[in-house]
């Protein structure tokens, strides 16, 4: 997509999401809350954006309504994406959810039997999912962070360090970190029982140093725009800080610090119920599906299952 075309599509995407609730019985406050939720800089909304832009381009090229399309239209779009780009079934399922969000009556699409049958058919043709997921050792990242002096490192680096440590210790997502008000954080006068032996890796010590260097600005949040503190900080920027630090421990793309921290906690003996609650996982099964795939790599199934009497 050319830059101008992409900008036009993005403007149309935002327009659709802005007007989605205007013709409902919702009051102005409820409409604004729901609209802001759909436009907020979250991992879900970012993952939806590409599918929505692809659909808007496809709908424009084929003279199809971009917010009142039929089930057949959505199936044809997904089929085109499959045949043109050979997207995986998981990506097509994501596109389905993303495009459904643009429809003026999304409920009419979510339970459509023909659409569901199409997705099931694609899933049946997809190659098997790779079960093993290796454990990621964060020690290289921790070694790097321990060498960052809280008093002398750049403010931007200190923000990244604090975000990473809080992400590990509290299972925070970037969108969670983005919303923390600075005034909401209180440090007890006796916090030694929480403090790590290595003060350079202690989230509390890092926060205290960070608080002393926090700029005076209009933002009320813990993390701020390093270049222009009065300008909004996007969750994607925090994700960038964390991703750069994760690359010191793994070359794998699209890894989640919350997932890594949750698995490390479970492997260290923290009860699964506490990990699910602390990590704010939607339910135990969601976490189980993530962790068990990683846990499988600990077993040598070849030696266990293929033997000679």
From TrEMBL:
Entry keywords, A to Z: DNA recombination
Keyword field contains Secreted: no
Organism of provenance: Circinella minor
Keyword Transmembrane assigned: no
InterPro entries (UniProt xref): DNA_brk_join_enz, Integrase-like_cat_sf
Protein name, entry field: Tyr recombinase domain-containing protein
GO biological process: DNA integration; DNA recombination
Residues spanning the signal sequence: none
């Amino acid at each position: 997509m050319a830059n101008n075309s992409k900008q036009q599509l993005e403007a149309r995407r935002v327009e659709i999401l802005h007007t989605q609730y205007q013709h409902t019985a919702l009051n102005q406050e409820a409409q604004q809350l729901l609209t802001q939720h759909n436009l907020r800089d979250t991992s879900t909304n970012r993952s939806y954006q590409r599918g929505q832009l692809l659909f808007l381009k496809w709908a424009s090229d084929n003279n199809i309504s971009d917010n009142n399309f039929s089930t057949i239209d959505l199936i044809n779009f997904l089929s085109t994406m499959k045949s043109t780009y050979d997207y995986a079934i998981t990506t097509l399922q994501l596109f389905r959810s993303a495009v459904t969000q643009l429809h003026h009556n999304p409920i009419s699409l979510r339970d459509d039997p023909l659409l569901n049958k199409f997705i099931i058919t694609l899933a049946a043709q997809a190659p098997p999912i790779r079960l093993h997921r290796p454990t990621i050792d964060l020690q290289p990242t921790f070694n790097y962070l321990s060498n960052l002096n809280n008093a002398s490192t750049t403010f931007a680096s200190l923000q990244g360090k604090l975000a990473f440590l809080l992400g590990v210790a509290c299972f925070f997502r970037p969108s969670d970190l983005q919303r923390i008000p600075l005034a909401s954080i209180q440090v007890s006068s006796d916090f030694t029982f929480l403090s790590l032996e290595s003060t350079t890796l202690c989230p509390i010590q890092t926060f205290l140093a960070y608080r002393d260097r926090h700029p005076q600005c209009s933002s009320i949040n813990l993390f701020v725009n390093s270049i222009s503190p009065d300008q909004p900080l996007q969750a994607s920027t925090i994700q960038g800080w964390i991703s750069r630090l994760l690359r010191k421990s793994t070359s794998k793309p699209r890894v989640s610090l919350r997932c890594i921290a949750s698995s490390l906690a479970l492997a260290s003996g923290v009860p699964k119920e506490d990990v699910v609650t602390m990590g704010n996982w939607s339910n135990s099964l969601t976490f189980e599906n993530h962790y068990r795939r990683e846990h499988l790599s600990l077993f040598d199934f070849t030696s266990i299952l293929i033997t000679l009497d």
